[in-house]
Amino acid sequence: MSQSSVIRLHANDDVLIATEQLMPGATIETESLTIRELIPPGHKLAAHDIKAGEAVRRYNQIIGFAKADIGAGRHVHAHNLGMGEFERDYGIGQGVHETPKVAKPATFKGYKRPNGKVGTRNYIAVIASVNCSATVTRAIANHFSKERLAAFPNVDGVIALPHPLGCGLNVVGEGMDILRRTMIGYAKHPNFAGVLFVGLGCEQNQVLPLIEKVGAHEEGMLRHVIMQTEGGTRAAIQKGIQEVEAMLPRANSYKREEASISNLIVGLNCGGSDGYSGITANPALGGAVDMLVAHGATAILSETPEIYGAEHLLTRRAANTEIAEKLIGRIKWWKDYTARTGGEMDNNPSVGNKAGGLTTILEKSLGAVAKGGTTTLNGVYLYAESIDAKGFVYMDTPGYDPVSATGQAAGGAQLICFTTGRGSAFGCAGVPTIKLATNNALFERMRDDMDVNCGDLITGTPMPEISQRIFDAILRHASGEKVRSEELGYGNDEFLPWQVGAVM
């Protein structure tokens, strides 16, 4: 059997990764190893005998502890590998290094807004303030069919952003703060030429205070409709249609112009990860992130429950102690949050993750942080906070894809890169989401959903070539080329602000 049948990620690793299904009795000559049982592709096998209780390493990092003796060549997975406590070496700032900037940053064609920001799309957004106005919100947006928008060719569409929140929460509290930050972030987002807020009238999340917090905005391009004031559902829908119609001419006047890539904020997400995620798509995306940073752009890593156990790799890259301590503080918050709700941080990986070869949250997290590349960590942000730093930053979000992406978009991300090994079907409303496949089989099987293949790293394509492929795709899609999820109509149902706190 050839070396290509397995991958050794580090000389100190206790496990190898199968690149194809391995049958009992087969030998791996370069490892002097005989396969002792069936190993599915993407799964782990013991590189040598491992004693019960011993730490098990992948990426030269601890991914768990053996629950029983594991013989060389045997399958390493949930039946014999589990979690355990160990000290992390945070090494704050020890991994910081300067990233040389390119002399002439790349450009893309975007929509330049009066506030100096640049959009990758040109939508009008209709945003519900509360679940009670969701039906009206959808009806207003649905009125603007392709036929009705034909006279406005520069407008990408009118999209509805309903959600299940907005009432049953304390007016003052963490849950309401998060919801309002999210909605304000969307109202300010450069991918939206205009925004219409739709409220019921008696909800906790009142529209007028939201508009006040949005602050300065292009005249006439931030409007609102209150259902109870207008006289009910039909009247509010008609009024909302009129408000959007009033914004369309100005929205249509925007045209794509050449802009520096330094104006881009790119969100980084993963969903449906597998055993290849930390080998192919995630590190390849990390290489593209390093390129973005060198060109002056910004990239946001998120999903705090899915960096748990690998946070020490990020604190080592923190620009200063304050940034590192803020990240560690968010990890502590999550430990308390999950404990309060009867959960634990190791509720991951999911069923699909495990089927793809991931066993513990430590293993999943170590692969997930690779999306962030190698550059300095320049900031840590709360969910939906406006991103004001350049370079590589972190935003605290759940691992649930729609909630995480919604927070990144609210923070200003005009484009999202999303890696998947199992085949997540996802798209972020108004924000193009580039889907990166971790393996060739997935890319071939779900071509309708995948934008970029990273699986050919396994078959010999150099990592820098795949990172360049991703970087080029970012420029293309930022300049207007539709991603697969846009063509398939994903987005409106994936707007999902994070719900924190008691529902009253």
Can you put this structure into words, describing what you see?
The chain is α/β, with parallel strands linked by helices and 504 residues long. 29% of the residues lie in helices and 19% in strands. The protein has three domains: 3-82, Roll (Archaeosine Trna-guanine Transglycosylase, Chain: A, domain 4), CATH 2.30.130.110; 123-253, Ribose 5-phosphate Isomerase B, Chain: A, CATH 3.40.1400; 262-494. It has helices spanning 134-143, 174-187, 207-214, 227-230, 233-253, 281-294, 311-315, 321-340, 351-355, 361-368, 401-410, 440-445, 463-478, 484-488; strands spanning 6-7, 15-18, 27-28, 33-34, 44-46, 55-58, 61-66, 75-76, 81-82, 107-112, 118-119, 123-128, 157-161, 192-199, 222-226, 257-260, 265-270, 298-301, 377-381, 391-395, 415-420, 433-437, 452-453. The termini are far apart. The mean pLDDT is 94.
SSE topology sketch:
Elements: E1 6-7, E2 15-18, E3 27-28, E4 33-34, E5 44-46, E6 55-58, E7 61-66, E8 75-76, E9 81-82, E10 107-112, E11 118-119, E12 123-128, H1 134-143, E13 157-161, H2 174-187, E14 192-199, H3 207-214, E15 222-226, H4 227-230, H5 233-253, E16 257-260, E17 265-270, H6 281-294, E18 298-301, H7 311-315, H8 321-340, H9 351-355, H10 361-368, E19 377-381, E20 391-395, H11 401-410, E21 415-420, E22 433-437, H12 440-445, E23 452-453, H13 463-478, H14 484-488
Helix pairs in contact: 1-5, 2-3, 2-11, 6-13
